[in-house]
Specification:
By secondary structure, the chain is of the alpha/beta class. The protein has 17 helices and eleven strands. The radius of gyration is 23 Å and the shape is globular. The structure holds glutamine.
Length: about 525
Amino acid sequence: MSLADLTASELLDTLGRGEASAVEAAREYLALIEQRDGDIGSYLRVDAEGALAQAAEVDRKREAGEELGPLAGLPVAVKDVLCDSAGATTCASRMLEQFHPPYDATVVAKLKAADAVLLGRLNMDEFAMGGSTENSAFQVTRNPWDRGRTPGGSSGGSAACVAAGLAPLAVGTDTGGSIRQPAGLCGVVGLKPTYGRVSRYGLVAFASSLDQVGPMARTVRDAALLLEAIAGHDPHDATSLEEPVPQYAATLDKPLEGLRLGVVKEHYGAGLDGEVESAVRAAIAQYESLGAEVREISLPHSKYAVATYYVIAPSEASSNLARYDGVHYGYRTDQTKMVAELAAERKALSDAGDEAGLAQLDTALVRMYRKTRAEGFGPEVKRRIMLGTYALSAGYYDAYYLKALKVRRLIRQDFDAAFEQVDLIASPVTAAPAFKLGEMVDDPLAMYLVDLYTVSANLAGIPGISVPCGFNTAGLPIGLQLLAPPLKEARLLRGAHMYQQATDWHQRRPAFSATPSE
Ligand code: GLN
Protein backbone atom coordinates (compact mmCIF):
# COMPACT_ATOMS: atom_id res chain seq x y z
CA MET A 1 0.00 0.00 0.00
CA SER A 2 1.32 3.43 -0.88
CA LEU A 3 1.39 6.31 1.57
CA ALA A 4 -1.02 8.26 -0.62
CA ASP A 5 -3.68 5.58 -0.11
CA LEU A 6 -3.77 6.30 3.59
CA THR A 7 -6.15 8.79 5.14
CA ALA A 8 -4.47 11.78 6.76
CA SER A 9 -5.03 10.30 10.21
CA GLU A 10 -3.51 6.97 9.15
CA LEU A 11 -0.58 8.75 7.53
CA LEU A 12 -0.04 10.78 10.69
CA ASP A 13 0.13 7.56 12.73
CA THR A 14 2.42 5.92 10.19
CA LEU A 15 4.79 8.88 10.33
CA GLY A 16 4.54 8.97 14.12
CA ARG A 17 5.55 5.33 14.35
CA GLY A 18 8.55 6.07 12.18
CA GLU A 19 7.42 3.64 9.47
CA ALA A 20 7.79 6.29 6.81
CA SER A 21 9.28 9.76 6.63
CA ALA A 22 7.59 13.04 5.83
CA VAL A 23 9.93 13.39 2.85
CA GLU A 24 8.75 10.04 1.49
CA ALA A 25 5.12 11.08 1.87
CA ALA A 26 5.74 14.44 0.18
CA ARG A 27 7.66 12.77 -2.66
CA GLU A 28 4.84 10.34 -3.23
CA TYR A 29 2.25 13.09 -3.45
CA LEU A 30 4.45 15.23 -5.69
CA ALA A 31 4.85 12.28 -8.06
CA LEU A 32 1.10 11.72 -8.15
CA ILE A 33 0.48 15.39 -8.86
CA GLU A 34 2.96 15.19 -11.71
CA GLN A 35 1.25 12.11 -13.05
CA ARG A 36 -2.42 13.04 -12.63
CA ASP A 37 -2.92 16.76 -12.32
CA GLY A 38 -2.38 17.45 -16.01
CA ASP A 39 -5.82 15.91 -16.50
CA ILE A 40 -7.45 17.47 -13.46
CA GLY A 41 -5.95 20.96 -13.15
CA SER A 42 -6.50 21.26 -9.42
CA TYR A 43 -3.19 22.97 -8.59
CA LEU A 44 -2.35 26.44 -9.82
CA ARG A 45 1.17 26.09 -8.48
CA VAL A 46 3.02 23.21 -6.87
CA ASP A 47 5.82 24.09 -4.47
CA ALA A 48 7.91 20.92 -4.65
CA GLU A 49 11.02 22.56 -3.27
CA GLY A 50 9.23 24.23 -0.36
CA ALA A 51 7.28 21.08 0.47
CA LEU A 52 10.38 18.89 0.49
CA ALA A 53 12.21 21.40 2.67
CA GLN A 54 9.32 21.50 5.18
CA ALA A 55 9.11 17.69 5.15
CA ALA A 56 12.86 17.37 5.74
CA GLU A 57 12.57 19.80 8.66
CA VAL A 58 9.79 17.67 10.19
CA ASP A 59 11.94 14.54 9.80
CA ARG A 60 14.88 16.34 11.36
CA LYS A 61 12.78 17.50 14.33
CA ARG A 62 11.41 14.00 14.82
CA GLU A 63 14.87 12.50 14.71
CA ALA A 64 16.15 15.08 17.20
CA GLY A 65 13.24 14.34 19.53
CA GLU A 66 11.93 17.91 19.25
CA GLU A 67 8.29 18.66 19.83
CA LEU A 68 6.13 18.28 16.71
CA GLY A 69 2.90 20.01 15.72
CA PRO A 70 -0.44 18.18 15.36
CA LEU A 71 -0.15 17.82 11.56
CA ALA A 72 3.52 16.86 11.56
CA GLY A 73 4.52 15.77 8.07
CA LEU A 74 1.00 15.77 6.61
CA PRO A 75 0.76 17.21 3.12
CA VAL A 76 -1.87 19.97 2.86
CA ALA A 77 -2.88 22.01 -0.19
CA VAL A 78 -4.37 25.48 0.14
CA LYS A 79 -6.92 27.35 -1.97
CA ASP A 80 -5.16 30.29 -3.61
CA VAL A 81 -7.12 32.83 -1.57
CA LEU A 82 -5.20 32.68 1.73
CA CYS A 83 -2.07 34.77 1.96
CA ASP A 84 1.20 32.89 2.18
CA SER A 85 4.37 34.94 2.34
CA ALA A 86 6.21 32.09 0.61
CA GLY A 87 4.82 33.01 -2.81
CA ALA A 88 1.95 34.47 -4.78
CA THR A 89 -1.70 34.58 -3.75
CA THR A 90 -3.68 35.12 -6.93
CA CYS A 91 -7.32 34.36 -6.10
CA ALA A 92 -7.27 32.98 -9.66
CA SER A 93 -7.47 36.57 -10.87
CA ARG A 94 -5.34 38.58 -13.28
CA MET A 95 -5.70 41.35 -10.74
CA LEU A 96 -3.53 39.50 -8.22
CA GLU A 97 -1.39 37.47 -10.61
CA GLN A 98 1.76 39.16 -9.32
CA PHE A 99 0.65 39.69 -5.73
CA HIS A 100 3.13 38.38 -3.19
CA PRO A 101 1.65 38.88 0.28
CA PRO A 102 4.07 40.21 2.86
CA TYR A 103 2.53 38.04 5.59
CA ASP A 104 0.84 34.70 6.25
CA ALA A 105 -2.88 34.35 6.78
CA THR A 106 -3.52 33.05 10.30
CA VAL A 107 -4.71 29.74 8.86
CA VAL A 108 -1.50 29.39 6.85
CA ALA A 109 0.58 30.37 9.88
CA LYS A 110 -1.25 27.75 11.93
CA LEU A 111 -0.62 25.09 9.29
CA LYS A 112 3.06 25.94 9.32
CA ALA A 113 3.16 25.93 13.12
CA ALA A 114 1.38 22.56 13.07
CA ASP A 115 4.27 21.21 10.96
CA ALA A 116 2.09 20.54 7.93
CA VAL A 117 3.83 20.23 4.56
CA LEU A 118 2.32 22.74 2.12
CA LEU A 119 2.23 21.17 -1.33
CA GLY A 120 0.92 24.07 -3.33
CA ARG A 121 -1.93 26.36 -4.20
CA LEU A 122 -5.29 25.32 -5.55
CA ASN A 123 -7.47 26.63 -8.34
CA MET A 124 -10.75 28.40 -7.61
CA ASP A 125 -13.33 30.69 -9.13
CA GLU A 126 -11.91 34.20 -9.38
CA PHE A 127 -12.16 35.81 -5.93
CA ALA A 128 -14.25 32.76 -4.91
CA MET A 129 -17.19 33.98 -6.98
CA GLY A 130 -18.81 31.07 -8.74
CA GLY A 131 -19.84 27.49 -8.41
CA SER A 132 -17.81 25.65 -11.05
CA THR A 133 -14.21 26.95 -10.89
CA GLU A 134 -14.73 28.01 -14.53
CA ASN A 135 -14.35 31.63 -13.45
CA SER A 136 -10.65 31.08 -12.78
CA ALA A 137 -8.62 33.42 -14.98
CA PHE A 138 -5.96 30.73 -15.38
CA GLN A 139 -7.26 27.22 -15.92
CA VAL A 140 -10.15 24.81 -15.90
CA THR A 141 -10.37 22.17 -13.17
CA ARG A 142 -12.02 18.88 -14.07
CA ASN A 143 -14.09 16.59 -11.90
CA PRO A 144 -12.00 13.47 -11.21
CA TRP A 145 -15.14 11.33 -11.56
CA ASP A 146 -15.93 12.64 -15.04
CA ARG A 147 -13.40 14.88 -16.76
CA GLY A 148 -16.13 16.51 -18.86
CA ARG A 149 -17.78 17.85 -15.75
CA THR A 150 -17.08 20.58 -13.25
CA PRO A 151 -15.75 19.82 -9.78
CA GLY A 152 -18.06 22.58 -8.51
CA GLY A 153 -16.74 25.73 -6.94
CA SER A 154 -15.50 28.01 -5.86
CA SER A 155 -13.16 25.62 -3.99
CA GLY A 156 -13.20 23.26 -7.00
CA GLY A 157 -9.42 22.90 -6.96
CA SER A 158 -9.52 21.83 -3.30
CA ALA A 159 -12.27 19.26 -3.83
CA ALA A 160 -10.81 17.85 -7.05
CA CYS A 161 -7.35 17.64 -5.50
CA VAL A 162 -8.58 15.59 -2.54
CA ALA A 163 -10.87 13.42 -4.71
CA ALA A 164 -8.01 12.68 -7.11
CA GLY A 165 -5.74 11.75 -4.20
CA LEU A 166 -3.37 14.67 -4.82
CA ALA A 167 -3.37 15.75 -1.16
CA PRO A 168 -4.91 14.07 1.86
CA LEU A 169 -6.08 17.43 3.18
CA ALA A 170 -7.04 20.70 1.55
CA VAL A 171 -8.18 24.08 2.78
CA GLY A 172 -11.17 25.74 1.14
CA THR A 173 -13.38 28.73 1.81
CA ASP A 174 -17.14 28.93 1.89
CA THR A 175 -19.14 32.13 1.43
CA GLY A 176 -22.29 30.57 0.03
CA GLY A 177 -21.39 26.90 -0.29
CA SER A 178 -17.93 26.89 -1.81
CA ILE A 179 -16.60 24.15 0.45
CA ARG A 180 -19.72 21.99 0.72
CA GLN A 181 -20.87 22.15 -2.91
CA PRO A 182 -17.58 21.07 -4.55
CA ALA A 183 -17.10 18.47 -1.79
CA GLY A 184 -20.53 17.10 -2.67
CA LEU A 185 -19.86 17.10 -6.40
CA CYS A 186 -16.46 15.42 -5.98
CA GLY A 187 -17.41 12.87 -3.33
CA VAL A 188 -15.26 14.21 -0.49
CA VAL A 189 -15.89 15.71 2.94
CA GLY A 190 -16.05 19.49 3.32
CA LEU A 191 -16.88 21.48 6.42
CA LYS A 192 -17.89 25.12 6.71
CA PRO A 193 -17.35 26.17 10.31
CA THR A 194 -19.46 28.59 12.33
CA TYR A 195 -18.82 32.17 11.27
CA GLY A 196 -15.91 33.31 13.43
CA ARG A 197 -14.66 29.82 14.35
CA VAL A 198 -11.68 30.12 11.98
CA SER A 199 -9.77 33.35 11.54
CA ARG A 200 -10.27 35.29 8.31
CA TYR A 201 -7.06 37.27 8.79
CA GLY A 202 -5.16 37.05 5.53
CA LEU A 203 -8.10 35.58 3.67
CA VAL A 204 -8.70 37.76 0.61
CA ALA A 205 -12.19 39.04 1.33
CA PHE A 206 -15.16 38.29 -0.89
CA ALA A 207 -18.16 38.91 1.43
CA SER A 208 -16.79 39.52 4.91
CA SER A 209 -19.95 38.70 6.87
CA LEU A 210 -20.27 35.32 5.14
CA ASP A 211 -16.72 34.09 4.40
CA GLN A 212 -15.33 31.15 6.40
CA VAL A 213 -12.28 28.97 5.94
CA GLY A 214 -12.68 25.22 6.41
CA PRO A 215 -11.22 21.74 5.90
CA MET A 216 -11.68 19.33 3.02
CA ALA A 217 -10.64 15.71 3.27
CA ARG A 218 -11.60 12.16 2.38
CA THR A 219 -12.97 11.31 5.81
CA VAL A 220 -14.74 13.12 8.60
CA ARG A 221 -11.91 12.15 10.95
CA ASP A 222 -9.41 13.92 8.71
CA ALA A 223 -11.62 16.99 8.45
CA ALA A 224 -11.82 17.06 12.27
CA LEU A 225 -8.04 16.88 12.50
CA LEU A 226 -7.56 19.79 10.12
CA LEU A 227 -10.32 21.90 11.64
CA GLU A 228 -8.77 21.52 15.08
CA ALA A 229 -5.46 22.79 13.73
CA ILE A 230 -6.86 25.89 12.01
CA ALA A 231 -9.69 26.97 14.34
CA GLY A 232 -9.49 29.37 17.24
CA HIS A 233 -9.57 32.96 18.35
CA ASP A 234 -7.30 35.39 16.58
CA PRO A 235 -6.66 38.91 17.83
CA HIS A 236 -6.08 39.89 14.18
CA ASP A 237 -9.71 39.10 13.29
CA ALA A 238 -12.25 40.99 15.36
CA THR A 239 -15.03 38.65 14.22
CA SER A 240 -13.23 35.52 15.38
CA LEU A 241 -14.83 33.88 18.40
CA GLU A 242 -13.23 33.60 21.83
CA GLU A 243 -14.53 30.09 22.62
CA PRO A 244 -11.79 27.50 23.06
CA VAL A 245 -11.42 24.89 20.33
CA PRO A 246 -12.79 21.49 21.38
CA GLN A 247 -10.88 18.30 20.65
CA TYR A 248 -12.85 17.45 17.54
CA ALA A 249 -10.87 14.37 16.53
CA ALA A 250 -10.65 12.83 20.01
CA THR A 251 -14.41 13.08 20.64
CA LEU A 252 -15.41 11.78 17.23
CA ASP A 253 -16.14 8.22 18.27
CA LYS A 254 -18.45 9.20 21.09
CA PRO A 255 -21.82 8.08 19.71
CA LEU A 256 -24.60 10.66 19.46
CA GLU A 257 -27.23 9.17 21.74
CA GLY A 258 -30.83 10.03 20.93
CA LEU A 259 -29.90 12.12 17.91
CA ARG A 260 -32.84 14.12 16.61
CA LEU A 261 -32.36 14.68 12.90
CA GLY A 262 -34.38 17.36 11.12
CA VAL A 263 -35.64 16.93 7.59
CA VAL A 264 -36.70 20.17 6.00
CA LYS A 265 -40.05 19.94 4.34
CA GLU A 266 -39.34 22.80 1.91
CA HIS A 267 -36.30 20.94 0.54
CA TYR A 268 -38.04 18.30 -1.50
CA GLY A 269 -39.85 20.31 -4.14
CA ALA A 270 -39.55 20.60 -7.90
CA GLY A 271 -36.02 20.84 -9.26
CA LEU A 272 -34.52 18.18 -7.01
CA ASP A 273 -32.97 15.40 -9.08
CA GLY A 274 -34.63 12.02 -8.42
CA GLU A 275 -31.41 10.13 -7.82
CA VAL A 276 -30.12 12.82 -5.45
CA GLU A 277 -33.40 12.71 -3.54
CA SER A 278 -33.26 8.90 -3.23
CA ALA A 279 -29.65 8.98 -2.03
CA VAL A 280 -30.39 11.65 0.58
CA ARG A 281 -33.54 9.87 1.75
CA ALA A 282 -31.58 6.63 2.00
CA ALA A 283 -28.97 8.42 4.12
CA ILE A 284 -31.71 9.71 6.41
CA ALA A 285 -33.10 6.16 6.67
CA GLN A 286 -29.60 5.01 7.57
CA TYR A 287 -29.58 7.45 10.47
CA GLU A 288 -32.91 6.07 11.59
CA SER A 289 -31.50 2.58 11.57
CA LEU A 290 -28.60 3.90 13.66
CA GLY A 291 -31.09 5.04 16.27
CA ALA A 292 -31.75 8.64 15.25
CA GLU A 293 -35.19 10.09 15.52
CA VAL A 294 -36.16 11.82 12.28
CA ARG A 295 -38.41 14.85 12.58
CA GLU A 296 -39.87 17.01 9.87
CA ILE A 297 -39.10 20.67 10.37
CA SER A 298 -39.84 23.83 8.45
CA LEU A 299 -37.50 26.61 7.35
CA PRO A 300 -40.18 28.89 5.93
CA HIS A 301 -37.84 31.63 4.74
CA SER A 302 -35.39 29.31 3.01
CA LYS A 303 -37.06 30.06 -0.31
CA TYR A 304 -35.68 33.60 -0.08
CA ALA A 305 -32.15 32.50 0.76
CA VAL A 306 -30.65 32.60 -2.74
CA ALA A 307 -32.16 36.02 -3.48
CA THR A 308 -31.00 37.34 -0.11
CA TYR A 309 -27.51 35.97 -0.58
CA TYR A 310 -27.19 37.44 -4.07
CA VAL A 311 -27.93 40.90 -2.68
CA ILE A 312 -25.72 40.69 0.41
CA ALA A 313 -22.71 38.86 -1.06
CA PRO A 314 -22.31 41.15 -4.12
CA SER A 315 -22.90 44.24 -1.95
CA GLU A 316 -20.05 43.27 0.33
CA ALA A 317 -17.95 42.21 -2.65
CA SER A 318 -18.41 45.56 -4.38
CA SER A 319 -17.10 47.26 -1.28
CA ASN A 320 -14.26 44.79 -0.63
CA LEU A 321 -13.08 44.88 -4.24
CA ALA A 322 -12.88 48.67 -4.33
CA ARG A 323 -9.29 48.33 -3.09
CA TYR A 324 -8.12 46.90 -6.43
CA ASP A 325 -7.41 50.23 -8.03
CA GLY A 326 -4.02 49.63 -9.60
CA VAL A 327 -2.36 51.62 -6.83
CA HIS A 328 -2.64 49.59 -3.62
CA TYR A 329 -2.62 46.11 -5.05
CA GLY A 330 -1.79 43.97 -7.96
CA TYR A 331 -2.38 44.60 -11.60
CA ARG A 332 -2.08 48.03 -13.17
CA THR A 333 -2.89 48.83 -16.77
CA ASP A 334 -0.02 49.75 -19.12
CA GLN A 335 0.32 53.41 -18.23
CA THR A 336 2.40 54.49 -21.21
CA LYS A 337 -0.21 53.10 -23.56
CA MET A 338 -3.04 54.55 -21.51
CA VAL A 339 -1.48 58.06 -21.44
CA ALA A 340 -0.89 57.94 -25.20
CA GLU A 341 -4.50 56.89 -25.82
CA LEU A 342 -5.79 59.64 -23.63
CA ALA A 343 -3.62 62.24 -25.41
CA ALA A 344 -4.89 61.01 -28.79
CA GLU A 345 -8.49 61.28 -27.62
CA ARG A 346 -7.87 64.76 -26.24
CA LYS A 347 -6.33 65.87 -29.51
CA ALA A 348 -9.20 64.44 -31.58
CA LEU A 349 -11.77 66.19 -29.39
CA SER A 350 -9.94 69.48 -29.44
CA ASP A 351 -9.40 69.30 -33.24
CA ALA A 352 -13.15 68.79 -33.55
CA GLY A 353 -13.75 71.69 -31.17
CA ASP A 354 -15.80 69.37 -28.95
CA GLU A 355 -15.73 71.32 -25.68
CA ALA A 356 -18.34 69.11 -24.00
CA GLY A 357 -16.41 65.98 -24.92
CA LEU A 358 -13.20 67.49 -23.57
CA ALA A 359 -14.89 68.39 -20.30
CA GLN A 360 -15.99 64.78 -19.88
CA LEU A 361 -12.68 63.20 -20.69
CA ASP A 362 -11.16 61.10 -17.90
CA THR A 363 -8.24 62.42 -15.96
CA ALA A 364 -5.22 60.13 -16.25
CA LEU A 365 -5.87 58.81 -12.74
CA VAL A 366 -9.49 57.93 -13.42
CA ARG A 367 -8.59 56.33 -16.73
CA MET A 368 -5.94 54.28 -14.96
CA TYR A 369 -8.52 53.03 -12.41
CA ARG A 370 -11.01 52.19 -15.13
CA LYS A 371 -8.66 50.35 -17.40
CA THR A 372 -7.00 48.51 -14.53
CA ARG A 373 -10.33 47.19 -13.33
CA ALA A 374 -11.66 46.49 -16.82
CA GLU A 375 -8.57 44.42 -17.63
CA GLY A 376 -7.87 42.91 -14.22
CA PHE A 377 -11.31 41.48 -13.36
CA GLY A 378 -13.16 38.73 -15.18
CA PRO A 379 -16.83 38.96 -16.22
CA GLU A 380 -18.39 37.33 -13.13
CA VAL A 381 -16.45 39.57 -10.76
CA LYS A 382 -17.58 42.61 -12.74
CA ARG A 383 -21.17 41.37 -12.61
CA ARG A 384 -20.95 41.07 -8.82
CA ILE A 385 -19.45 44.55 -8.49
CA MET A 386 -22.24 46.00 -10.60
CA LEU A 387 -24.98 44.12 -8.72
CA GLY A 388 -23.55 45.13 -5.38
CA THR A 389 -22.94 48.75 -6.29
CA TYR A 390 -26.51 48.96 -7.51
CA ALA A 391 -27.96 47.38 -4.37
CA LEU A 392 -25.99 49.77 -2.18
CA SER A 393 -26.67 52.96 -4.10
CA ALA A 394 -28.85 55.75 -2.76
CA GLY A 395 -32.50 55.04 -3.44
CA TYR A 396 -31.98 51.28 -3.70
CA TYR A 397 -30.21 50.60 -0.43
CA ASP A 398 -33.43 50.31 1.58
CA ALA A 399 -35.25 48.33 -1.07
CA TYR A 400 -32.48 45.78 -1.61
CA TYR A 401 -29.64 45.73 0.87
CA LEU A 402 -31.60 46.63 3.99
CA LYS A 403 -34.44 44.31 3.00
CA ALA A 404 -31.97 41.49 2.46
CA LEU A 405 -30.51 42.06 5.93
CA LYS A 406 -34.01 41.74 7.40
CA VAL A 407 -34.67 38.50 5.55
CA ARG A 408 -31.28 37.26 6.69
CA ARG A 409 -32.41 37.75 10.28
CA LEU A 410 -35.60 35.75 9.57
CA ILE A 411 -33.53 32.93 8.06
CA ARG A 412 -31.40 32.82 11.18
CA GLN A 413 -34.54 32.80 13.35
CA ASP A 414 -35.91 29.85 11.33
CA PHE A 415 -32.78 27.90 12.26
CA ASP A 416 -32.97 28.96 15.91
CA ALA A 417 -36.54 27.63 16.05
CA ALA A 418 -35.64 24.44 14.19
CA PHE A 419 -32.73 23.70 16.49
CA GLU A 420 -35.12 23.81 19.47
CA GLN A 421 -36.59 20.61 18.03
CA VAL A 422 -33.63 18.85 16.41
CA ASP A 423 -29.89 18.45 16.97
CA LEU A 424 -28.83 18.36 13.33
CA ILE A 425 -30.53 19.08 10.02
CA ALA A 426 -30.02 16.81 7.00
CA SER A 427 -30.44 17.96 3.40
CA PRO A 428 -29.09 17.59 -0.10
CA VAL A 429 -25.95 19.63 -0.83
CA THR A 430 -27.05 20.39 -4.38
CA ALA A 431 -30.18 19.60 -6.34
CA ALA A 432 -28.21 17.62 -8.94
CA PRO A 433 -24.81 15.94 -9.34
CA ALA A 434 -21.90 17.63 -11.15
CA PHE A 435 -22.92 19.47 -14.30
CA LYS A 436 -21.01 19.58 -17.57
CA LEU A 437 -18.20 22.06 -18.08
CA GLY A 438 -19.57 25.00 -20.05
CA GLU A 439 -23.18 24.06 -19.32
CA MET A 440 -23.98 27.11 -17.21
CA VAL A 441 -21.31 29.65 -18.09
CA ASP A 442 -23.78 31.75 -20.06
CA ASP A 443 -26.56 31.44 -17.54
CA PRO A 444 -25.50 33.14 -14.29
CA LEU A 445 -28.94 32.74 -12.75
CA ALA A 446 -28.88 28.96 -13.22
CA MET A 447 -25.42 28.94 -11.64
CA TYR A 448 -26.70 30.99 -8.68
CA LEU A 449 -29.59 28.58 -8.16
CA VAL A 450 -27.12 25.74 -7.61
CA ASP A 451 -26.55 27.37 -4.21
CA LEU A 452 -30.11 26.70 -3.06
CA TYR A 453 -29.24 24.35 -0.21
CA THR A 454 -25.98 25.86 0.91
CA VAL A 455 -26.36 29.65 1.22
CA SER A 456 -28.70 29.58 4.23
CA ALA A 457 -25.93 28.30 6.51
CA ASN A 458 -23.74 31.25 5.58
CA LEU A 459 -26.56 33.75 6.04
CA ALA A 460 -27.28 32.25 9.48
CA GLY A 461 -23.59 31.83 10.36
CA ILE A 462 -24.05 28.16 11.31
CA PRO A 463 -21.72 25.24 10.56
CA GLY A 464 -22.40 22.69 7.83
CA ILE A 465 -20.71 19.63 6.43
CA SER A 466 -20.97 17.73 3.18
CA VAL A 467 -20.37 13.96 3.24
CA PRO A 468 -20.56 11.48 0.36
CA CYS A 469 -23.87 9.60 0.44
CA GLY A 470 -24.03 7.77 -2.88
CA PHE A 471 -23.53 7.83 -6.62
CA ASN A 472 -25.98 8.26 -9.45
CA THR A 473 -26.30 5.73 -12.26
CA ALA A 474 -23.69 7.64 -14.28
CA GLY A 475 -21.21 7.17 -11.42
CA LEU A 476 -21.26 10.77 -10.17
CA PRO A 477 -20.99 11.36 -6.41
CA ILE A 478 -23.92 12.67 -4.37
CA GLY A 479 -23.49 14.61 -1.14
CA LEU A 480 -25.45 14.78 2.10
CA GLN A 481 -25.39 18.07 3.98
CA LEU A 482 -25.68 18.22 7.74
CA LEU A 483 -26.19 21.51 9.56
CA ALA A 484 -25.73 22.26 13.25
CA PRO A 485 -26.33 25.18 15.63
CA PRO A 486 -23.55 27.76 16.03
CA LEU A 487 -20.32 26.35 17.48
CA LYS A 488 -21.64 22.79 17.46
CA GLU A 489 -18.93 21.54 15.10
CA ALA A 490 -18.15 18.66 17.46
CA ARG A 491 -21.73 17.45 17.18
CA LEU A 492 -21.72 17.97 13.42
CA LEU A 493 -18.54 15.96 13.02
CA ARG A 494 -19.76 13.18 15.28
CA GLY A 495 -23.02 12.98 13.34
CA ALA A 496 -21.18 12.82 10.03
CA HIS A 497 -18.64 10.34 11.36
CA MET A 498 -21.39 8.06 12.62
CA TYR A 499 -22.73 7.91 9.06
CA GLN A 500 -19.29 7.23 7.59
CA GLN A 501 -18.76 4.40 10.05
CA ALA A 502 -21.85 2.73 8.68
CA THR A 503 -21.27 3.39 4.95
CA ASP A 504 -18.42 3.10 2.49
CA TRP A 505 -19.23 5.80 -0.06
CA HIS A 506 -16.19 7.79 1.03
CA GLN A 507 -13.90 4.87 0.29
CA ARG A 508 -14.58 4.82 -3.43
CA ARG A 509 -11.97 6.40 -5.65
CA PRO A 510 -12.13 7.71 -9.19
CA ALA A 511 -10.15 5.75 -11.77
CA PHE A 512 -6.79 6.96 -13.07
CA SER A 513 -4.74 5.42 -15.80
CA ALA A 514 -1.10 4.85 -14.98
CA THR A 515 0.01 7.52 -17.43
CA PRO A 516 -1.55 10.91 -18.11
CA SER A 517 -3.67 11.13 -21.26
CA GLU A 518 -1.73 14.05 -22.74
N1 GLN B 1 -21.49 29.98 -5.55
C1 GLN B 1 -21.58 31.03 -4.60
C2 GLN B 1 -21.18 32.34 -5.24
O1 GLN B 1 -20.85 32.33 -6.36
C3 GLN B 1 -20.75 30.73 -3.40
C4 GLN B 1 -19.33 31.09 -3.53
C5 GLN B 1 -18.54 30.86 -2.27
O2 GLN B 1 -19.01 30.23 -1.33
N2 GLN B 1 -17.34 31.40 -2.26
O3 GLN B 1 -21.19 33.35 -4.65
